[in-house]
Amino acid sequence: MSIKVLLADDEQIIRTGISTLISWDELDMELVCCAENGQKALEYISTCPVDIVITDIRMPLMGGIELIRACANAGFSVRFILLTGYGEFEYAKSAMHYGVRHYLLKPTDESQIIQALKEIAADLYTEQRRRRPFTGASPSVPAQISPQDPIEKVKLIINEELSNPDLSLKWIAHNKLYMNENYLGKLFQKKTGKKFSNYLTDQRMQYAKELISQNPDIKLTELCQKTGFINNPAYFCTSFKNYSGLTLTQYRQKPFQ
Fold first, then answer.
1. Where are the 4-aspartylphosphate modifications (predicted)?
2. Which candidate, 43, 53, 145, 163, has a CA 20 to 30 Å from the CA of 66?
3. 188 CB contacts (<8 Å, ≥6 apart)?
């Protein structure tokens, strides 16, 4: 199965860069068309179906959102990677209604695009296996499914990285999800009702309480190491008191009262 990809961007330098820097054969993909706007992209898709479209959000004649909407209305089964700029969150989020979940902040590099392509490829191979009997053959791209909802992905990453002192919204956006940090933060707050920083602190403090309940004599340094506060034990103690209503010493004594 060779996955067909279309690139739509009104900037020639972007089209040239993406088309030449990515090793399409290694991804088992084929870049079948480079369009300078959404209208030309739609004309191509209407006659030659594609699997993935990488599209800029703003282009003359027809932008990325309009292209996504047109494909959805026409019933085309296409996955999108949306290239966005700063300050375009309100405009870009309308694509969420059409299932778009890959948003890359321009200027981007090929590693971010490749990661997004691999994630979509894994989904496509999984869907392909579900539609046909199992033959024992392994696809060239492994289908490893993490939750589809980006916010569920964020929660999963938080649980896996609680001890990481560098864990932040920016770290997740740039190193794990390859999404616009500002967009991801607003989406997270909309979905959870909490700012990312508050949610992260709550998860870390809840984990600290679990560690203390398992071992009331656990050292502060170990608590800080396991909850990502290794460089700031004072801040850990303040956060713990704000979360639990008790100092660390008071909470240690609580199970024995």
1. 56
2. 145
3. 151, 154, 169, 194, 195, 196, 199
